[in-house]
Amino acid sequence: TLNIKPEIEVFDVSMIQNALDLADQGLIPRPMHFDFVMGLRGAIPATIENLVHLKNTVPPGMTWTVAGIGQYQLPVCVHSILMGGHARVGLEDCIYYKKGVHATNEQLVDRVARMSKMMGRQVATADDARDILGLSAASL
Questions:
Q1: Percentage of the chain surpassing pLDDT 70?
Q2: What is the reported pTM?
């Protein structure tokens, strides 16, 4: 086996059902990992209500992450952590640490890691992440 897990990027709630339909056809393995991309033009707006709806649409036993675009990165990641989900951060989604101040990936990851710890969530190691996603240990 390839020891990979597809990341199903979700830009609106119907994409979850589309992915589940593909899994029913045997085209995508279960359990799936969803990445909710919020706040991008043409994607679902980055609101708490929409995040709750996306989360509630994912069947039990599947994992999910939130990626907020631009100014939405921090708010949706905080809410994802509080709701038991995971957070995707980085320069792909937001180039600013705060208004007018350019960020590095290290700064963005460090900030969310610190906030996670403050909210009582342990930050996953690489081994933890493989376990969460159901992947075997990396081969060297």
A1: 97
A2: 0.92
Q: Domain holding 123: CATH number?
A: 3.20.20.70
Task: Quote the tokens at residue 118.
Answer: 């403050």
**With 80 as the cut, is the pLDDT of residue 1 above it?**
no
1 found inside a domain: no
Rg (alpha carbons) of the chain, rounded to whole number? 15
Measure the CA–CA gap between 78 and 70, rounded to whole angstroms. 14
Structure tokens at 48: 């708490």
Mean per-residue pLDDT over the chain, rounded = 94
| Residue showing tokens 């707006």 | 45
| Overall number of domains in the chain | 1
Residue 97 belongs to domain spanning:
7-132
CB 140 within 8 Å of CB 105 = no
Distance of alpha carbon 116 from its chain centroid, rounded? 14
The whole-angstrom separation of Cα 122 and Cα 21 is 33
Does the residue 140 lie in any domain? no
